[in-house]
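Question:
Now give any protein.
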Amino acid sequence: MPCDTDQLELRDHRFGRINRRMPIGPVQWPFHDLFWVHEGRVAITFPELEAKLELVAPSGVLILPGTQFQGATLGAFATASICHFAMPEKPAGPGYALPNPDEALHLQNLIRLAMHLARRNRPDELPRRKRLLLSLLDGFELTGATDIPTADEDRLTIAWTQAGQNLHRMRTLADVAALLGISESALRAMHRKARHTSAGEHLRELRLTRSEELLVSTDKSLATIAAEVGYGHAATLAAAFRKRRGKTPGQYRHWSNPFA
């Protein structure tokens, strides 16, 4: 998406939490919308394209102007950011772009820097913010509804729903694959093709999202929660939680219940 920084118009850049009571859209913007999920899982549907994405943090989507979409969090809540901007050269027709494979973590760091600069809102940093946005756009690849096999999406949705309801039994991806009657390698390939994310990362996010819900809504010990979400040891959950959420489970429980 080539564009000169002088022709790029920054409009809005915000960060916040969304939950089941706060759905996204339906909406259709006349400008670009870079939607990024920092924590949790969000489903985005494009009715005109007959496409559905499940964004598992860290991940996002660049929604092109004139594209109708709607969405909702798949867990108790998710944290996400939006960046609205206008470009003189707009791709024809509705559509969206997804992050290049294996670049999501790097893009998230750039997005966090972009938010930091947006909060400062210094006029002398506007050219830098535009250059940063162009660098971000280099990390996205245009796609379309034809890239998402409907049959596989339906099978995956059913399997992942069952897995999410029985995490204590889903010790590895092989257990999820067994729900579909396929091998682990076939599951990995199917998930990557249909949802453009890693199956292993998706299972990890299911465990962490459920852990968040249990930390917030119960007083269960970390060992009990670990067992319920499919981790063999509390230390394993704690390490994964800190790496992906930036907080220990105890810190997260306190952060989510500040008056407890």
Observations:
- The mean pLDDT is 86.
- The beta strands are 9-19, 24-28, 32-39, 41-46, 51-56, 59-63, 68-73, 77-86, 96-99, 140-143.
- The first strand starts at residue 9 and ends at 19.
